[in-house]
Structure formats: C-alpha cells, structure tokens
Amino acid sequence: IVADASEYDVVVVGSGAGGLLAAIRAHDLGLRPIVIEKSDRYGGTSAVSGGAIWIPNNAFLGDQDSPAKALGYLEKVTEGRVPTAKLERYVQMAPEMVAYLKSLGIEYYTNPYMPYPDYYPFVKGSLPGGRTMLVRPMDGGALGEEFFRLRESYPEFKMFDKIALDLLDGGIILNRVKGWQKVVLRTLWRYWTDLPFRRRTHRDRLLTIGNALIGGLRKAMIDRGIPLALNTAMTGLETSGGNVVAVQASAQGRPVRIGAGRAVILASGGYEQSQQMRNENFPQATDPSWSATPRDNNVGDALTAVREIGAAVEFLDEAWWAPTVNIPYRHAPNIQRHQALFFERGYPHSLAVNRLGRRFTNEICSYHQFGKAMLRDNAETGANLPCWLIFDADYREKYPLGGLQPGWSLPDRKVPPDWFDTFLYKAETLAGLAAKIGLPVDTLAATVSRFNEYALKGEDPDFGRGQNVYNQFFGDPNHQPNRNLGPIAKAPFYAVRIDLGDLGSKGGPRTDEEARVLREDGTPISGLYAIGNCSGSVMGPAYPGAGATLGSAMTFAYAATANIARRN
Ligand code: FAD
C-alpha cells in the first residue's frame, strides 16, 4: 500500500462507520480513496455498537418532524455552543445520507413497536417517538474472507454470547413480548442449521446492529475495489505550503508515506483509551478501562497530529458518557471489559446512590445525562465515581442487568460463583448489603424507605422518575402505578458498582459545516477534514437521541466528500 500522491486522491484514517462511508462516497464522486486502519480488524467502536442512527426528518417521520423543529431542538440542547450552520447541515444532510446508505444496500427503518424517544423529552422540538433508525441485518457470507477481519460484536448483544440478535428481536425476548419463545426457536434453528459456518466458526453468519452497518459498508468497498490497509497506523500529517499533502504511517511496523492528492479525512475515533489524554482533558479523574469502547486503538492519534499543525480544538472535556459495569466474562476472559447500562436503570425495584447512600439523579435519564449527573455529584460530594445500583429480589427475578440475565432465565445458583462479591453483591438484609459495599447503613436505609413510599404512590417528588416519556419507555409496562418505580423490599438485596464510562470521547479539531479542520482564526487547513469522535462534535455537550454519534460521523463523512469533490 506504500504509495505516492499520484495514486490516491483521498486518504481516510480509521475504518469506523464514518471512515468507510467517506471512502465509498469519495469513490462514487470520481475520486480514488484508500482507508488505513491501525488494528488488524476493521470497524472500530462502530462495529460493536447498536448501529442505530439519529436522523431528523427521516422518511418514516412524515409530518411529525420538520427542519425547523429539529433545528430548534438541536440549538437548545447544544446550549448555543455549536454554530447554527453546522447544525443546519446536519438536519439537511442526514436524511440524504440515509438514502445514500440505502443505495449501497444498507437499509435503515424506524420500528413502530419500539419508538425510542429523544433524550431531552422536556425540551421543545423533541419527539416522543424519537428520530432513531435501526439497521436491517445482513448476510455476512457476502463478505467472503473479509467476514473474519470484521471486529466482532460484543457478547451482551447476542444469545448465549454468540448468536446474533437485532435490537427488535432482542427487545422481544428480553421483555417476553407475546410470541418471544417462537423468536428464540427461530433464532436457534437458523444458527445451528447453518452448517457451512458451524463447521468453521462460532461466529454467526447473520450480521446485526453495528456489525450489519460495517459489514454493509465493507461489502460496498469490496464491490468498488477500494483498498483497506489493516495494521497501518497514521503517525503524523505532512504539509506543504500550508496544505496537508500526505499521511505518515506505520504499516506493519514499517514507516511509510501515503500521498493524498486531494485530502486526508481523519476518522480515527476518540482518545478514550488514553489515560494521559483523559487526565489532561476530562473534568475529573477517570480510567480508560471504564469505557465501553474496545480497549485498543482509540488513543487520540488524530488529536496529536492536528495539534502539531496548528488546528483549533474544542469539546475536549466532553464524552458520550454512559454508566458502565464490569462483568467478568468467563467464556471470553480476553474481552473482559466494562459494559454500558443503557436501559436497566429504568426498571422498578432499583435505585442509584452515591457512596454517602444518597440518590443524586433521576436514574432513568439518558445514559449521557446520568454520566453528567455522576460528574456533578462527585464535584459536590466527592462520593460518586463509582456509585451503586441497589435492587431487590423482585428486580433480580424479572429484569436483566447488562450481561446478567434475569433470574427467570439465569437463577443465582447458575450465576458463575466468581461474579458474586466482585460484580454482583448480595446480602439477606439491606444493612448487610450496605456493610458489604461500604455504604453508611443508616443513610441507605433512610433513602430506601423514602423511595419505597414514593414507589407505593407512584410519584417521585425528588427527581420525577417515571414522569416523562423517555423514562416510561424503559420501564415495565406491566408495573403499576408507575412503570419505573417499585419498592426495594424483597430479600435478598443486591448491588452492582457503576463506573463513569463512555461510548467514546467527542472532542478534537474544530471543524466547519463541510467538516474542514479549522485554525484558531477560523480559516480551514487546506486538504484536511475530520469526522466522528476524533473531531469536535456537532452535538457539542449534548446527546440528542440514540444514534447521534454514528449519525453525525456518517453525515459529516458525506459532507466532507461533497466538499472535496467540489474543490478543483
Ligand atoms: P471508531 O468507530 O472507533 O473508528 C475509529 C477507527 O480508527 C478504529 O478502528 C481505530 O482502530 C482506528 N484508528 C485509531 N487510531 C488510528 C490511527 N492512528 N491510524 C489508523 N487508524 C486508527 N452510537 C450510535 O450512534 N448508535 C448506537 O447504536 C451506538 N451503540 C453503541 C453501543 C456500544 C456498546 C458502544 C461502545 C458504543 C455505541 N455507540 C453508538 C457509539 C458509537 O459506536 C461511537 O461513538 C462511534 O462508533 C465512533 O465512530 P468513529 O468512526 O469516530 O470511531
């Protein structure tokens, strides 16, 4: 892949969703792209994600949405910190980008049975049914040998850690929606009768969620003959007369120069796996192991490179925050890592407390807002990071928690013994539990008794739990009078430690509405673009709805390539 400027017009750094889409679109606009990827697998965090995208005015929304409504919502949640031109570009171009994905054979849809509400339900312009779109599964067999170089989805999104589920089927099984047994049988049958794949690998031929998105993009690259160089890491950017003209890289450990006749697009993810960059930029002390992203390459190489050539940077103190728990996977100890709690905080019979034994937020705000509440509470009390989720036997029996299936499916006697008192703490009394995890017994008891009174009335005057559409979406529809509130009363009692995790950092070079990297004076650095988590996010400090991170990475990939093709 060692090449000079005459060979590639566009060098894309990183093979997440934004990077791959940029390369395909560049090709379709008549340019010659290459993607370089540091890892020996392609797909980055995008491959292990839910694959959902947040698309205002998408074709399924009809007159529920309008550009003005979506823009108004975005302007409010981003607190005036993102230029309107950039927000407008997102609103205008995101649906166009989805239509382009469809032309590549990657189909997105909204699911009327799972309307995932926007994350700020109390802000004008939010939609109760949300703007989130889900990806249709794909047959991984279409990738040939490239199937095996796709970064594999996490086990928690699979049945028995290996059988692929999409978000729709997963929801049906988890919530035991009528007919769920049929879905289980159909899924098992599909997996076990796929003899060609069963003879070769445990991996499921069916690609779902993030794997479906990345698999679909990789297939489009293969069809077009676009090169992808694995094990090739950008180490710096070369400039000439103020223009970015090449990427310096290490290919299998060998230094190479890859000329970029027209542009370099940085798409190399955030810096969440770098302890040093976290220490320098995040508001409080955190640990990379708390992140739900793969534990390897997202260490801020783009940030280092753009700083060397004078780019302005922004939102370095921000991340797509998410509470995480550390589940020790016995089947796959090599992927032991923190797992995001996206929805579990919404079920009845549970609450979250800081280490003083006090509640500090509405537990079932969005995962991003929960993370921000942890930061806020820790700044005030010094007793968050970590905090604790407390629940009782009713919760344990009925509801899942990350990779811990509910008791009806995985009773305590079948839970791996080493999970107890490392991940899952259990005691016959609340006082015993408090003592075990080091919380003040009296305060915890007072918090729980107050919460239990609220649960009986179905109202939470302290934090309003269960009183907005987002909360209710994640509750138990069969639980009354409030689907998010139930007393913590039935022994035994349980606790899991919650860390301040993330789905990636979201600060980096400041970019304009064309995704061009800017200097402090606002002028673009010619030939340099940045998208996704390696750039200052179009969402600023906010997380407007599920899919806003992949949605923005791919939309600005689309905008960047349009701009590159227009130039010259
Ligand atoms: P990545 O996808 O991480 O890609 C960056 C790539 O660049 C990596 O492959 C990396 O190895 C490579 N790289 C790094 N440094 C270099 C270098 N020097 N040279 C070459 N290559 C390099 N978001 C959504 O919008 N919807 C969801 O449903 C969703 N679900 C999620 C579920 C989970 C469990 C997690 C962890 C995250 C989820 N997210 C979701 C967040 C989303 O996945 C990420 O924010 C997004 O994938 C970031 O995309 P990216 O292209 O910026 O980075």
UniProtKB/TrEMBL annotation:
One of its GO terms (molecular function) is oxidoreductase activity. Keywords: FAD, Flavoprotein, Oxidoreductase. InterPro entries: FAD-dep_OxRdtase_2_FAD-bd, FAD-oxidoreductase_2, FAD/NAD-bd_sf, Succ_DH/fumarate_Rdtase_cat_sf. SUPFAM superfamilies: FAD/NAD(P)-binding domain, Succinate dehydrogenase/fumarate reductase flavoprotein, catalytic domain. Pfam families: FAD_binding_2. Residues 9-550 form the FAD-dependent oxidoreductase 2 FAD-binding domain. Its cofactor is FAD. The keyword Oxidoreductase applies. GO terms for biological process: steroid metabolic process. This is FAD-binding protein.
